[in-house]
Amino acid sequence: MKPISKSIPKRDHLTKANGSAMYVCDYPTEDVLFGKLLRSGVPKANILNVKLPGLPEGYHYIDKNDVPGTNQVAIVLKDTPVFAESTVEHIGDPIGMIVGPNEHEVNRLLNETKIEYKELEPVFDVKKSDVVFFDYNYEKGDIEKAFIEADKIFEEEFETGLQEHMYLETNGLIADYSNGKIHIHGSIQCPYFVHDAVVHAMGIKHEDVSVAQDTMGGGFGGKEDHPSVMACQAAVAAYKLKKSVRIIYDRKEDVEATSKRHPSFCHYKVAVKDNHITGMQINVLYDAGAYTTLSPVVLQRGIIGACGIYNVPNLKVHGQARKTNTVPSGAFRGFGAPQTFFAVEMMMTHIAKDLGIDPVEFKLKHVSKQGELTSTSGKFHEPVPIPSMIDRVIKASDYYKKKEKYEKSTRLKSTHTKRYRRGIGLSAVYHGGGFTGNGERDLIKAVVKLKKDPIGNVEILTAITDMGQGINTVFAKIVSQELNLPIDRIIINYPDTSKVPNSGPTVASRSVMIVGELLRKAAAKLKEDWIDGREQIIEEHYKHPEFLIPFDLSTFYGDAYPSYSWAVNAVEVEIDTYTGCIDVIGAWGSFDVGTPIDENIVIGQMEGGFLQSIGYGMMEKMTAVNGRIRNNTFSDYIIPTAVDVPNMHVMLHVEDYSHGPYGAKGAGELPHVGGAPAVIDAIQNALGVTLNKTPFLAEDVMDVLRRQKSNG
Amino acid sequence: MANEIKFILNGQEQVYDGNLAARLLDVLREKFNLTGTKSGCKEGECGACSVIIDGKLMNSCLIAMGRVDGSTILTIEGYSETERFLALSDAYESVSAVQCGFCTPGMILASESILSSNPHPSEEEVRIGISGNLCRCTGYNSIVKAIGIAAEKGSGLW
Predict the structure, then answer these.
(1) What is the spatial distance between Cα A321 and Cα A136, in angstroms, rounded to a whole number?
(2) What percent of chain A has pLDDT over 70?
(3) What CATH code is assigned to A439-541?
(4) Dihedrals φ, ψ of A622, to 5°?
(5) Vertex A54: Cα angle to A52 and A58 (nearest 5)
(6) Tens digit of pLDDT for each residue in A74-129?
(7) Pick from A130, A294, A399, A625: CA 20 to 30 A from residue A543's CA?
């Protein structure tokens, strides 16, 4: 490890530990009005009438007629309304908002409000939806030829479910009004996204809006697009009433109304010749829900990763995101990749099993190498450390010995009378750091600033938010190291768009790799130009690395990402055949995020993400029945506790990225890509079957066991 | 007042004559401005609102005010003035066990609850002891490690 990797105390440690940190829910509520949204109770309808109860003095109803600019929330597209125009498209779609000084009274008024609808035919089954939001295709090589020449062709479909972020702090923000200006603060992952959305909806000047982040209780992608919706609603009310308006969701509202991971169906057709994969034809279908939100970008990442870490010479990929009348899907750690990586990892194990080859050997035979083409005919410019990472995980988990033992036992009749069965599984994945394609160059154009005061303290000014992942500590370390200044001379606060430049959103595992490198360069410049006793400001702008093959989004050709982070995960399970319950008895992960800027912080990211990913595999099931989310609390949407994965072992592998600060690459999302396929692989090993869906729960185990029993 | 109750909150006697069916969580946050106690679910599942009542870890969202008459209540604000807090806080800091921080006050009080009944817990006992406190960020390893470090370095405090 390099010296910079040595951990230091996190900057936000003490205020969070002693309870004094101010989250948006902790701000005083005197002189603040409470806003509560009137939401659709039906999945698709024309709104005929909203019948309000008598509103006491000081209570107001806000809806589309109050939006001063355009009744649209600008996300990627602008199809999400601030308040419903004349139709509702999903249960929970906001129609209006009741605002007033007493929260209980606001709730009472809301409960007494009646909405009259003319219900329309909703669509819940994404396969039956004929509204295609996004449709992408790409190919390389000659897939038809690969199928003609194949010895064997494998076909299978994979299914993944909804996943809810379940950050401990629900979505919330406050809009303040003063002299024609709007200030928003709250639990906001991407302040400039919110800023631009409020400017668009309000029709006011850019400089009349400011957006600030408060201490945040987690995000994981779940506070990437939705705060834009809430901020527009709160801003409309604050502007009309000339008062501060606060919207903070309770847990049920947060689960029912905010975005989740896209459910998916991925269909694979794979050509094999001489025990080697020669081609893949892949159809990816994501359920976008009622509005487009971030679906185009999620789908792009999903289809780019559709052939996993493998070198597939002939490849044809088709991806669609279609509309259904359910809550919109959006960003969640991994951002479209966990779905396709789950599918391809399971596909690889199934083909290997059929061919009688050990799945890990089979994967190793196909792993891309440095210099080889990516799925989009870009290049793996830097080393691919997967073989040595697999080696390490196999040794740590005793994979081969266990695998063979468990596999043998599934073939013995005596096993089938035993109560407990064990299995072990392994996955190998990557995550591309930064925005897809030319996004960093053409869309984001990140800017950072360093401001030195006359005493010689240096303030970091970026739009990146610390949601708990520790970026403020990491940025301070980078600048301190480069300037050779003590860490306590570096100042960093939560961003406010009136003070910080637009360094882009806190997404796509880009914060350290892209923005951290800009800060390092700015610090190097400041060091060179340092003048004692004077205020100095250094600004640094993003430059696209020259080694990259330009990416063309219309053909999906070129380098989709500048660098790749790698992960190998193994999971061991024990299944109780009496109850179907699955216990994770061991989990091992090797992760390569380049040089960790802070070892504890990176390990914390890996452990937390890995656990979420294991939850996605065997615990976190969310169902929508007729468009209504059934699991809207912690009681029925189960996330892992401290006893669920007691033996998790995280190892770091370091393969530096030439253009990242001190060699750092993307980190945050990587651990959420490979957990689910490793768990499901372990379950199929334990049960002696092939599985094709995640999550896989006790009831699914019981189904398999019942089938095994009836088949004798 | 007929419905007046008394209790000790962070070492100070308090008299309360408000709604006795109100949640302790809401009263702590809104009346006493003790916002270190967090609200994550209001149904006793997440543990973010944990406080210590008469030496026991409780979800303050499930406690009606009427129940705390005569009780001694410790919130993170009171606890953070103790030496035990410093030992736990240092231990959490040394392994960066605080991420978003929303579960942290409750998690620290859960740590206190474990160590006050069992100063040298096994890893399994620690995991069971915090299993009523959900954390979505850390994966729990660092928190478990921190409690072990506090037990060792703060030996004698508990």
Answers:
(1) 9
(2) 100
(3) 3.30.365.10
(4) -125, 130
(5) 105
(6) 999 999 999 999 999 999 999 999 999 999 999 999 999 999 999 999 999 999 99
(7) A294
Which of B45, B102, B133 best probes binding to A when mutated, by most A CB atoms within 10 angstroms?
B102
Reported as a single tens digit per residue, the pLDDT across A325-364 is 999 999 999 999 999 999 999 999 999 999 999 999 999 9
Name the segment(s) of chain B with CATH classification 1.10.150.120.
82-153
Signed CA dihedral, A681, A686, A690, A694: sign only: negative
Which amino acid is it at A662? Y
Judged against a pLDDT cut of 90, whether residue A587 lies above it is answered with yes
Task: Say yes or no for a CB contact (<8 Å) between A220 and B134.
Answer: no
Average pLDDT of the residues of chain A: 97
* ipTM > 0.90 (yes/no): yes
Cβ pair A674, A596 in contact under 8 A: no
CB contact under 8 A, A19 and B35: yes
- Give the containing element (helix H, strand E) for A425: strand A420-432
Neighbours of A552 (CB within 10 A): 13
Residues of chain A with CATH 3.30.365.10: 264-435+558-710, 439-541
CATH superfamily assigned to domain B82-153 = [2Fe-2S]-binding domain (1.10.150.120)
pLDDT, tens only, A373-428: 999 999 999 999 999 999 999 999 999 999 999 999 888 877 777 899 999 999 99
- Pairwise CB contact (< 8 Å): B99 & A608: yes
Alpha carbon separation from B41 to A92, A171, A249, A648 (Å, rounded): 19, 13, 10, 27
A189-219 per-position pLDDT tens digit = 999 999 999 999 999 999 999 999 999 999 9
Residue with tokens 């330009």: A550
HEC readout, A117-181: EEECCCCCCHHHCCCEEEEEEEEECCHHHHHHHCCEEEEEEEEECCECCCCCCCCEEEEEEECCE
Give the CATH number of domain B5-75; options: 3.40.50.300, 3.10.20.30, 3.80.30.20, 3.40.50.150.
Answer: 3.10.20.30
Residue B1 pLDDT > 80: no
Name the residue with tokens 């410019």.
Answer: A381
Torsion of Cα atoms, A294 then A300 then A302 then A307, to 10°: 180
Whether CATH 3.30.365.10 fits A264-435+558-710: yes
Pull the structure tokens for residue A132: 């295609």
Confidence at residue B2, expressed as pLDDT on a 0 to 100 scale? 61
For chain B, list the strands marked E by DSSP: 5-9, 12-16, 50-53, 56-59, 72-74
Q: Cβ separation of B140 and A611 shorter than 8 Å?
A: yes
Q: SS3 of A92, please?
A: coil
Q: Identify the pLDDT of residue A412.
A: 83
* Confidence (pTM): 0.98
Those residues with Cβ within 8 angstroms of residue B40's Cβ, 6 or more apart along the chain or in another chain: A168, A169, A170, A251, A634, B46, B47, B48, B49, B102, B103, B134
Per-residue burial over A625-661, b = 16 or more CB atoms within 10 Å of its CB, e = otherwise? eebbbebbebeebbbbbbebbbebbbbbbbbbbebbb
Q: Closest chain B residue to A637 measured between Cα atoms?
A: B45
Phi, psi of A426 (to 5 degrees): -140, 140
CATH class belonging to A24-122+166-257: alpha beta
Q: Choose the closest CB to B45 out of A7, A601, A635.
A: A635
Task: Give me the helix-helix angle, A399-411 and A386-397, nearest 10°.
Answer: 60
Q: What percent of chain A lies above the pLDDT cut of 90?
A: 98
